[in-house]
Amino acid sequence: MTQRFKSLLNGDSELRPLLDKVQALSALQHHFASVAPTHLAQSSQVLSLRAGILSIAVANATVAAKLRQLVPELIVMLQNCDCEVSGIRVKVQVSFSGSQPELKPRILGKAAQDALGELSQSLGDSPLKLALKKMIEAKA
């Protein structure tokens, strides 16, 4: 948040509670991201904290299922970060699109290249043989 915006919110007594809430949610998001597995934290967003129940929006049901499995551990870790969390509620929000993890190209090892080479030599002329040759050449 820019300093000018913060000073505007801080200067108005009616808007100050909004700034406090935003800062609290931002801190909770930071704590959640630090304790949750990276791939799950990237697909999640803290929505609110009411009566000790932390609500989290996730991008899909797969992320929701995995987070629900980790809830007991996450609660303990968040409590260790001095967060007053006694429960976690996970909501699937399809419209929420978490940041996509960076995809790293995979590199074939020498043994894999050799095996694919042998396989391609054993095949007759076909689209599969051509695809295997392209894979070997691209990773060489």
For the termini, the CA-CA separation is 47 Å
Gross morphology is: elongated
Would you tell me which CATH topology of the largest domain applies?
A: GMP Synthetase, Chain A, domain 3
- Label the CATH architecture of the largest domain: 2-Layer Sandwich
Write the CATH homologous superfamily of the largest domain. Answer: DnaA, N-terminal domain
Per CATH, the class of the largest domain reads: Alpha Beta
Order of helices and strands: HHHEEHEHH
Largest sheet: 3 strands, mixed
Q: Work out the radius of gyration.
A: 24 Å
Number of helices: 6
How many β-strands, per DSSP? 3
Q: What's the arrangement of secondary structure elements?
A:
Blueprint: H1 3-11, H2 16-35, H3 38-41, E1 44-50, E2 53-58, H4 61-80, E3 87-92, H5 110-122, H6 127-139
Parallel strand pairs: 2-3
Antiparallel strand pairs: 1-2
Structure, explained:
The chain starts with a helix and ends with a helix. The protein folds into two domains: 3-92, DnaA, N-terminal domain (GMP Synthetase, Chain A, domain 3), CATH 3.30.300.180; 110-139, no CATH class. Strands 1-2-3 form a three-stranded mixed β-sheet. The chain has six helices and three strands. The model has no long low-confidence stretch (mean pLDDT 85). With 140 residues, the protein is α+β, with helices and mostly antiparallel strands. The longest helix has 20 residues, at 16-35. It has helices spanning 3-11, 16-35, 38-41, 61-80, 110-122, 127-139, and strands at 44-50, 53-58, 87-92. Strand 1 and strand 2 form a beta hairpin. Helix 5 runs antiparallel to helix 6.
